[in-house]
Amino acid sequence: MPNAVTGFSAALLKLAIQLSVAAYNNDFTSFDGEMIYKNRTDGFLAPVFYVYKLDGNLWLVNRGSITQIDYLSCAEFNERTTDLGTFHEGFWIASETTLSQAAKYIEEFDGTVYITGHSYGASVAPVEYVILRNKFPHKDINCLAFGPVPMMDNVTSEKYRDKLVTVINHFDLVPTLSVPNVWNTFSYLEPVISQLPKDQIIDVLEKFLDYFEWGISIIDKMLYEALKADIPALVDAVIGYTQGEQRLIRYPAGHVYQINIDKPKPIDECEVEPTSFDSLSTYIWAMTEHPDKVYENAVMAIPDNRVRN
């Protein structure tokens, strides 16, 4: 299924990442648009988001993680199967919460709608996109996600991939954070994992994260600490997976583009198979490639190319 995102281009991606970064700072003054609605109060499974009208299009911009509550929302590793597909439970609930406020503005709007965000915001955005595609099947709804955690099963991703784009910065760790990928990385434990105490498995994963610690900045330290806090929940999920629990969510969703600021290429040349992200990224700088400003710099380095209609 080809990429059918309306107006897809490097310029569109650059605008989307700039809006996603603006959401972190609650500062859209660099854009000549109209703020239709904003929810600046974050809660557990209730993210900050903005509904913004710009250049005749409507943007639903989801903020990434800033607070401890945001990070706790990302740690809901259970899967929820719905009539629309199987989703990361935390991101499904967060999407429902956001759309309970935002959907009416999308319903009232006649033009093209873009949903975007970075990190937590990018993990929620594709779920919102699937829900809205079904709620408003005749509307032009598109999604541009930057550095998300995997959030939907492969069948659902394929069904809705025409207007869904995921951008991954080089070897960013976060888009590889799924239970099957964790298991694939540590499969050498398979003969004994069912006999190992949970604390021992937690220790293995903590040592894996410690591998990255010396190379991270103060900003990246927030991600490091959040991931470390999530390890017990992740271990529970991995143990369940080894005992036969079904885990359908593994890969980034939609059309996936892997970019590299050191080797910028036209976006059409950056598309990769989602299944290539089949284990945890073990690149030493994997955490330093995730922050929003790092993504912004990498996206802004993409050479301009033609616009798709």
TrEMBL record:
Q: Which SUPFAM superfamilies match?
A: alpha/beta-Hydrolases
GO term, biological process aspect, one: lipid metabolic process
Residue stretches in coiled coil: none
* Key words of the record: Signal
Task: List each copy of the Fungal lipase-type domain by range.
Answer: 76-179
Signal peptide range in chain numbering: 1-22
Q: What is this protein called?
A: Lipase
Organism this protein belongs to: Tritrichomonas foetus
